Amino acid sequence: xxxxxxxxxxxxxxxxxxxxxxxxxxxxxxxxxxxxxxxxxxxxxxxxxxxxxxxxxxxxxxxxxxxxxxxxxxxxxxxxxxxxxxxxxxxxxxxxxxxxxxxxxxxxxxxxxxxxxxxxxxxxxxxxxxxxxxxxxxxxxxxxxxxxxxxxxxxxxxxxxxxxxxxxxxxxxxxxxxxxxxxxxxxxxxxxxxxxxxxxxxxxxxxxxxxxxxxxxxxxxxxxxxxxxxxxxxxxxxxxxxxxxxxxxxxxxxxxxxxxxxxxxxxxxxxxxxxxxxxxxxxxxxxxxxxxxxxxxxxxxxxxxxxxxxxxxxxxxxxxxxxxxxxxxxxxxxxxxxxxxxxxxxxxxxxxxxxxxxxxxxxxxxxxxxxxxxxxxxxxxxxxxxxxxxxxxxxxxxxxxxxxxxxxxxxxxxxxxxxxxxxxxxxxxxxx
Length: 432
Ligand code: DLL
Fold this sequence. Notes:
alpha/beta, nine-stranded mixed β-sheet, 25% strand, globular, binds 5'-O-[hydroxy(phenylacetyl)phosphoryl]adenosine
């Protein structure tokens, strides 16, 4: 179902016109209201009045995750605090999270974007949506919630975890749609089989899965195990959360809600704009956001743009399902983790050496992380209690900094293999 044909099927020339008007307005606003943008726009040698066509977006400076970190917490806010009504966050590269602040209008954009997203997967007001994305600072729970309400579907705000209860509700409430990470969908299916629940015969017939990389193979497995259609949804905290791009019934790329989020693909090394079909880094400009609007934000996600018309009738451009990242960000059970965050935390823990290795495995569809840390030689000659205390301290500190539990293994100095050049900090054994 197309939720908003007026915008989703708009003629391209008309859409470009609206995008240009929004871009000009955005450039003016951030230039006058946000010192950071005034400086970067000036440094690019232009003023907002130099934007005459949508292609002029290339004249504007990029914004990066580091810029967000340096302006934490409120440096990129473009409106007075009393207009902010909601805040979400996700992990940044080191200690500081990435912050998104929403005005009422921003929430309306999100509601609209998510209603289109869920409708793209076939959701209507007759559906019962079991929303197993986390509620809280993470955007997944709230995003699906808003979208469901906008459609008028019934939403079950389950949040993540508690598998037994998820299965009970799935069966007893007859949920027709499920939303969670693709790895959790498979884990849930496995647990259902264990509990002798025949999920194939339940009413659940569609799902929206995202927040982490997944493959066509995983899609086929989810569709087979549940006897359902599994749709890919994409988004990121900085831009709005989920709802930036979504699959339709054609399942051939994800439609970008480009009246709100203007996409570009650039060469990650030179910063040059690439053509449709060329693989590169995805960049978004939030054309209509008010709280924390972003100019040419470098997502570090790799994909390409698809401009050919889609069989579904939507005229919005699509992105290919994601093809990787330009950095070392790991997504563990839906939580974004940077090795630099772990390194930063270890530096502050006495007794450890700055040598560590992160080993990621997927066991029974759940991600497991082992963190090997070299500790000072003296600790190994000490009584084992000292080692155990240090180990549990590291587990505790990592849990509070990263929001996930890691297995920690302390190893003697010089055990972790040294590499010539860039240290190899991550062994990712997951076969996605
Ligand atoms: O993961 C928002 C979201 C919630 C998307 C629920 C979809 C469903 P962050 O925690 O900020 O936001 O993580 C954003 O996750 O830059 C991608 O690297 C990755 N990601 C998100 N969706 C997909 C997807 C949410 N469908 C980061 N496929 C992004 C692959 C994805 N990677």
